[in-house]
Amino acid sequence: MQPQEELEKWAPDPATWERAKALISPKKWKDLGAQGNLCWGLSRTGKATLHKVLFQFSDHSFHCSCSVQKKPCKHVLALAGIAVGNPDSLVGATAFPEWVIENLGRLEQKGTAKDAEPGAPGPEALEQRRRNRESRLERMSQGMEELERWLADTIRQGLGSLDGQAEQALERFAARMVDAKLGSIGRRMRNWKKLLGRTDWQEQLLAEMADLFLLLRTFQRAEVLSEELTMDLVQIAGLSIKKEEVLQAPPVEGRWTVLGVLEGEEDNLRFRRAWVQDQKSGDFALFLDFAWGDQPFEHHWKLGQQFDGSLVYYPSAYPQRALVRVHEEIKIHAYHLKGLDSLEEMSKQYAIALSRQPWVPRFPVLFENIRPVRDAAGQWLLFDISRKALPLSCANQTGWMLLAISGGHGIDIFGEWDGATFFPMSCLSAGRLINLCID
After folding, report:
1. pLDDT class for 117, splitting at 50, 70, 90?
2. Helix (H, G, I), strand (E, B), or coil: what is residue 348?
3. H helical segments located in 257-388
4. Which stretch of 74-83, 160-169, 355-364 has the lowest confidence by average pLDDT?
5. What is the rounded CA–CA span in Å between residue 287 and residue 261?
6. DSSP secondary structure string for all residues of 166-188
7. Per-residue pLDDT for 111 more than 60?
8. Alpha-carbon gap, residue 327 to 85, rounded angstroms
């Protein structure tokens, strides 16, 4: 094992090493242990889930259960640092803990995962991946049958049957959906509880249930769908596609501008949506990232940032979400953005998107020369040059900010359309992008 000062050279970048140094302390670990050339431990930062970490002295192979792509991650570097600087803290063990045994086959060396990205996985890996996916799809199919029965029973009895026990009923059934590997559907049903206090909750809940019914009916006919739409379907239902699988697809080169960045948190799981647009084609891509507790996101995206790079889109009939393969930030001289000047054109493009993928959750739109207006009822709207209006979904403070920036004239605004309202994320003023994602 190289001395501790050499660990910095082993890190994939300086930032990872700086984060690792903060974890090189036995007090920040649980169940530190060692046997022969192998050491292990459970790392937790803040409120995050425990990460299972292994490090082998003999060949510097390692494994960490975190989702960071850059290897070795801060947890592996920190464990190696403890092994070098404080070996007495590693409790000698006569046998491996069960979780260590389960992960021994996942040990890898620096560069292994990265170098494997451009190539195709081996036949054994492909066969195992196929079996795992078939098994999960079978569980999902059973869950869809249960969902169909629940929807039919609820409609037959009437939504009024949920009164007084709606939250508990939704929570119980959402948990069953998660158990059936339909995690996305389960989370969606938990969010239905937010509708219950509204005056029109029955109408909104019925619309949500109808959308789920369309989803399950389509799932039942998956064998006649295109491969791209099938991939959309299983991802919407809850099947995750590994990043290394996505990175096998051909990349898309371009000069990209970050037009909107939104961060939030649900159940200690932090999320971030970052929309980028290609300067030449005007195409959009979505970087959707998740992190537990106070864990950092893998990449740092800031509003207005521009970079040259290659992206890889997730498989979809209407591709939106993407991963960045390589990127190099550039100095910005001027923004060259491609937007729409009418709501009619937006409607046409949105209709095309839905015809390809009926469950597009958010449709990115960059409007040019559009005017923010507040009506007599206090509703914020966008007016285009033909005086057609679009309702805004934003805080009152955001509406007043837009009105102040525009001075009553047309400006360029980027945001997300969900089929009912437009959520503004940024606007262009005096050659710079202004963040509208404020509390």
Report:
1. very low
2. helix
3. 343-356
4. 160-169
5. 9
6. HHHHHHHHHHHHHHTT-HHHHHH
7. no
8. 36
CB environment 299-329: b (16+ within 10 A), e (fewer): eebebbbbbebbbbbbbbbbbbbbbbbeeee
Identify which of 246, 245, 188, 175 has the alpha carbon closest to the alpha carbon of residue 215.
188
pLDDT in tens, 310-339: 999 999 999 999 999 888 988 887 888 889
Using the structure block, give the residue that is written with the tokens 């099938």.
230
Over range 383-410, report the average pLDDT: 94
* Positive/negative CA dihedral, 315, 367, 412, 435: negative
| Neighbour-count burial of 187, counting CB atoms closer than 10 A to its CB (0-12 exposed, 13-18 middle, 19+ buried) | middle
The answer for residues whose C-beta is within 8 angstroms of residue 310's C-beta and 6 or more apart is 251, 252, 253, 254, 324, 325, 326, 327
Tokens representing 16? 């990872």
Distance CA 210, CA 163 (A): 19
Domain ranges of the chain: 4-116, 124-237, 249-329, 343-435
pTM of the model: 0.69
Contact (Cβ atoms closer than 8 angstroms) between residue 183 and residue 174:
no
- 412: β partners: 428
3-state secondary structure of 33: strand
